[in-house]
Amino acid sequence: MADVKRIAITGAAGQIGYSLLPRLAAGAVFGPETPVILQCLEIPPALGALGGVAMELMDCAFDLLEDIVISDDPRTAFAGADLALLVGSKPRGKGMERGDLIRENGPIFTGQGNALSEVAHPQCRVVVVGNPCNTNCLIALNNAPNLDPKNFSAMTRLDHNRALAQLAEKAGRHSSEVRNVTIWGNHSNTQYPDFHYATIDGKPATEVIADEAWLRDPFIKTVQERGKAIIEARGLSSAMSAANAAIAHSRLLFQGTPEGEWTSMAVVSDGSYGVPEGLVSSFPVRCPGDGSWEIVQDLSFNEWGKERFEITVNELIGERDMVKDLLPG
Ligand code: NAX
């Protein structure tokens, strides 16, 4: 058996938490040889519900689950954490603009960034899921002076998986045969799902799906608007698929991307592709498997793709400007 890993999950009594916790407890991120302690954070009104979730986790009698901590204090939940999944945030209310949501949720991530910096394991990897996830991640990493900004990332793997699934369906193939799509920019409906380097069974997706009009319009729109379509159908936002993507994102960080493949992940820009340094943007990313990542270099855009890329990066610049007061320094 390997050393126990501490996994902190915020918003653990929410929808995504309910799908996420059993998979974490079953070893989906660190593998079947690594015991885990789940350290769950909630706001006080949700602690009762979280207690119920903890009872269910106990009743699963997972082999790898060593302990469950529940708390409304980030310093308790993040203590010694090797991985922190920041899922908890307020949902967008009726009539709320995206800007209102950013201002509403931003302060959660200053406090959590601070707490992580003080009490998490110095090598803790922080994965932000709660929306607006790119900008929440930007806030958290800027408020965590003891942690390397490269230890933070925000989740665009759900968008990536949605893109794989759409391409597979159109081509009449299995999603596992589709590789190397890229989500660029923001986890919002300005994101640019890029199919130009994608392959299906090793062949360029643009050859297998010789329908540029479909790729440029219905494909992109379906991926961008998938979250909305699920809310309309289910009356609730994506939760099972979001939890699944959070697991995939974390597993790739710790177990690595397969040879020749990349994933999509929002990480702090080093200026690659002209994305302003310090902005948290989704890029094609390779992970060696030690918790680090590197941005895949030397992909190019045609004029049409560049336009899409710039729209989403400009949205991120606008979001950063809205939260300037939450970014110290
Ligand atoms: P829920 O509303 O079901 O759960 C959120 C939970 O967070 C609640 O239990 C709430 O009490 C808790 N919470 C609120 N403030 C908190 C705080 N300061 N500290 C700790 N916990 C806090 O939402 P759910 O469906 O689970 O979604 C969670 C977040 O994921 C939302 O922000 C949602 O927008 C975002 N998503 C992100 C996705 C992505 O691809 N990055 C996709 C799915 C999802 O939309």
Task: Write up what this structure looks like.
The strands form 4 sheets. This protein has a 6-stranded parallel sheet. It is α/β, with parallel strands linked by helices. α4 links the parallel β4 and β5. α4 runs parallel beside α5. Helix content is 42%, strand content 17%. The protein folds into 2 domains: 150 residues, Rossmann fold (3-Layer(aba) Sandwich), CATH 3.40.50; 166 residues, L-2-Hydroxyisocaproate Dehydrogenase, Chain A, domain 2, CATH 3.90.110. The protein has 11 helices and 14 strands. The structure holds ligand NAX. Ligand NAX binds next to α1.
Topology, pairings included?
Blueprint lengths: L4 E6 L4 H11 L10 E6 L5 H14 L4 E7 L2 H4 L5 E4 L11 H22 L5 E4 L4 H10 L9 E3 L2 H15 L6 E2 L2 E3 L7 E3 L4 E2 L2 E2 H4 L3 H13 L1 H9 L5 H16 L7 E6 L11 E7 L7 E2 L7 H20 L7
Parallel strand pairs: 1-2, 1-4, 2-3, 4-5, 5-6
Antiparallel strand pairs: 7-10, 8-9, 10-11, 12-13, 13-14
Helix pairs in contact: 1-10, 4-5, 6-8
Bound molecules: ligand NAX.
Beta-strand percentage?
A: 15-25%
Shape: globular
* Annotated CATH architecture of the largest domain: Alpha-Beta Complex
Structural class: alpha/beta
How many individual domains? 2
CATH superfamily of the largest domain: Lactate dehydrogenase/glycoside hydrolase, family 4, C-terminal
Number of strands: 14
Please name the defining characteristics of this protein.
329 residues, alpha/beta, Rossmann fold, L-2-Hydroxyisocaproate Dehydrogenase, Chain A, domain 2, 2 domains, six-stranded parallel beta sheet, three-stranded antiparallel beta sheet, 11 helices, 14 strands, 17% strand, globular, binds ligand NAX
